[in-house]
Design a protein that fits this description.
heterodimer, A: 545 residues, alpha+beta, 6-stranded mixed beta sheet, 14 helices, rod-shaped, B: 132 residues, alpha/beta, 6-stranded parallel beta sheet, 6 helices
Chain lengths: 545, 132
């Protein structure tokens, strides 16, 4: 079985990377500081040892000169007992220990190749002048602690060879060596302490930085990214109503905003694709249905009409035949509606006075509106620019919207307000992107009717979606949508159940030749009130030619 | 009765042909029937009739093709194209091919009679007319 691949999160990588950098930085710094400290300590000790050698040499000078050996011995032992001093001893030129604070080694001879002698005797010939560094050595003592040793050659001088003891001949260069040994135990302890403190500091710094990075990466990166991932999964599963919280002001906020924008556009694109797809399927279906059904309908309509004429003297039969004729014509209208929707004609655009089209549409639906006790309220902009549009198609749009509004108002009556206006910039960003910045002509049909349920709003422009039961085919708004789309415009609906609905159609005023010429002045039309109507609903007429 | 036809009706649907013939018969108009464009072009009525009513979608050559062919033979003969697939494109195609009028199926008897009367009344005028 394959082992699961180790997943390295951004937080882990950041913490590991920063931890390494900090560890290397603090580690390197620690080494430098500790080494400098160690060198300074050693330097201090070396100078101390040198000074001590000098002191011993000068304090024993006269005792030596006068050959007072017990006094020299006493002085060396006394000094050797002091704290931090390991051992003080004096060799003669042959390497025999003459005096030592460690009395057990007095009289012992040292090999010139021994560590203490190596500085001078390695080259075969004793050197007479040595630097401080060359006279210094560090070696481990028997119990393991380190010892700093410093030798000081005692040179022959006139007072030596002329002294009464005649101990030294004139031709001897070096008479002996003073060897001072200082313990480095205390210095080493301090250095080790420094190292521990630096290590602790480094660990604390790494821990604190890691904690900070962890918190930052969690709150700034991981949580928003997790939300984005969860959101994109929901989108992938088809939920295009997902939105990301886009409050952050940094790049992830931009990303969330970009995602929201993308999802909204995806939704729009998907809705348009679905619409186009339905259009195509319905187109194929409608073409087949239209051709197949219209031939038999021709037979039914023609023969029913002929029979009706022939039975003019039998009113009951003629009336029944009239029903057949009427219902056959209704079938014809349904099939024509299907064809209108499925094979929309490209708009024959010309300069169109939107207000004039509104008046024509109102004339078409006037009977229907009177039936529904509708009060019509016109708010037509007086100096509206002409719209490059297909007047017949736009009339159909307005007729459809007015019929819907009348249906929504219902038998109780209400108000339908028709507004035309010019808007310089469409309120929705994507419309601006798709159609370019304004100016737009705006047509609003607003009713005081029953409103539209939120669940229906999304489906309103889909073909065959109807809230009117068997009284509607569900193509009116789908056809409307198709026409507005073909004009490069937008249609949107705002509604709350019980508070009416508001359909806004925006058509671009893009053709400059048209846009600059104002339409003939159209004063606000008078309010039309109608309160009566016949009992029977008249046959619906489509606005399409 | 050869040569006595006023109108030639071309449609592959017998019920449509029969309905048109029945309506016209009441008005005293004598109609011949052909089920396809080829049959129509071979029909003796074509040489003497004063109007052709043809379906748009026919087996073999279409109503548009038939209209073009008749226009070559009889430039002034009125032709009414009828179709159950009445789109603006189809009506424009028919009129461009030389049809006098376009009528969408199913039509009212009054619509048919109006178109026929107009065509028979002024056979030489190629007034283009669209169904409403």
């Amino acid at each position: 079985m394959r082992a699961p691949r180790l997943k390295l999160g951004i937080g882990t990588l950041a913490i590991a990377g920063a931890g390494l950098v900090i560890a290397a930085g603090i580690g390197g710094l620690s080494v430098l500081v500790v080494n400098a400290h160690r060198a300074a300590l050693l330097d201090q000790l070396t100078r101390g040892a040198d000074q001590l050698s000098e002191t011993i040499a000068s304090s024993t000078y006269h005792d030596m000169l006068e050959n007072r050996r017990p006094a020299v011995h006493r002085e060396i032992v006394t000094i050797g007992r002091q704290k931090g001093i390991e051992k003080v001893r004096l060799f003669n030129a042959l390497g025999t220990i003459m005096f030592s604070s460690d009395e057990s080694e007095i009289g012992r001879s040292l090999d010139k190749r021994a560590e203490a002698c190596y500085g001078c005797h390695a080259a075969g010939q004793p050197l007479q002048r040595l630097s401080t560094r060359e006279r210094t050595r560090i070696y481990p003592a028997a119990d393991g602690h380190r010892v700093l040793g410093m030798i000081r050659p005692i040179h022959n001088e006139q007072s030596c060879w002329t002294a009464e003891c005649h101990a030294h001949a004139r031709d001897e260069a070096v008479l002996g060596v003073l060897d001072v040994n200082l313990s480095l135990a205390e210095a080493d302890r301090r250095i080790a302490g420094d190292q521990r403190r630096f290590a602790l500091f480094a660990i604390l710094a790494i821990a604190a930085t890691s904690a900070l990075l962890w918190w930052l990466s969690r709150s700034l990166i991981l949580r928003p990214v997790a939300e984005l991932i969860a959101g994109t999964r929901k989108v992938a599963e088809g939920d295009l109503h997902t939105t990301f919280p886009a409050t952050a002001r940094h790049e992830l906020g931009d990303l969330a905003r970009a995602f929201n924008d993308m999802i909204r556009r995806l939704g729009d694109a998907q809705r348009q694709l679905v619409q186009a797809d339905k259009l195509a399927s319905i187109g194929r279906l409608a073409a087949g249905v239209a051709h197949e059904i219209n031939n038999p309908l021709t037979g039914v309509l023609t023969y029913a009409s002929l029979l009706q004429e022939r039975c003019a003297d039998q009113p009951e039969v003629a009336a029944d035949l009239g029903v057949i004729v009427r219902e056959t014509k209704r079938c014809r209208e349904i099939v024509r509606g299907l064809l209108d929707f499925a094979r929309p004609s490209p708009p024959q655009q010309g300069p169109t006075d939107l207000n004039e089209v509104v008046r024509r549409a109102v004339a078409v639906v006037m009977n229907q509106l009177a039936l529904s006790r509708v009060r019509l309220d016109f708010q037509l902009a007086p100096a509206l620019h002409q719209v490059p549009a297909d007047a017949n198609q736009i009339e159909q749009v307005i007729v459809n919207l007015l019929m819907n509004a009348a249906d929504a108002v219902g038998a109780e009556g209400g108000t339908i307000r028709i507004t035309t206006a010019e808007a310089s910039v469409p309120p929705r960003d994507d419309a601006a992107d798709a159609r370019g910045p304004g100016p737009f002509a705006e047509l609003v049909v607003e009713d005081s009717g029953s409103g539209i349920a939120a669940s229906d709003l999304d489906h309103l422009f889909e073909p065959f979606f109807t809230t009117k039961g068997n009284r509607g085919l569900g193509l009116g708004l789908a056809v409307t949508w198709g026409i507005v789309e073909a004009h490069g415009g937008t249609i949107e609906v705002q509604s709350e159940p019980g508070h009416g609905a508001r359909f806004t159609v925006r058509l671009p005023l893009t053709a400059p030749a048209v846009a600059t010429r104002p339409a003939p002045s159209a004063a606000v039309a008078p309010v039309v009130s109608a309160t009566t109507g016949p009992e029977r609903r008249p046959e619906r007429k489509r606005g399409a030619a | 009765m050869k040569g006595d036809w006023d109108i030639l009706v071309v449609d592959d649907e017998p019920v449509v042909c029969d309905a048109i013939v029945a309506v016209l018969a009441r008005e005293g108009v004598r109609a011949a029937v052909a089920p396809s464009a080829e049959a129509a072009l071979a029909h003796p009525a074509l040489a003497t009739c004063r109007l052709v009513v043809t379906d748009l979608m026919l087996p073999g050559r279409s109503g548009i093709g038939l209209t073009r062919a008749i226009r070559v033979l009889h430039p002034d003969l009125p032709i009414v194209v009828i179709s159950g697939y009445a789109t603006r494109q189809n009506s424009e195609r028919a009129l461009e091919a030389g049809a006098t009028a376009f009528l969408a199926k199913p039509f009212d008897t009054s619509e048919l009679l109006a178109v026929v009367r107009r065509a028979l009344g002024a056979p030489s005028v190629a007034g283009k007319e669209k169904e409403s």
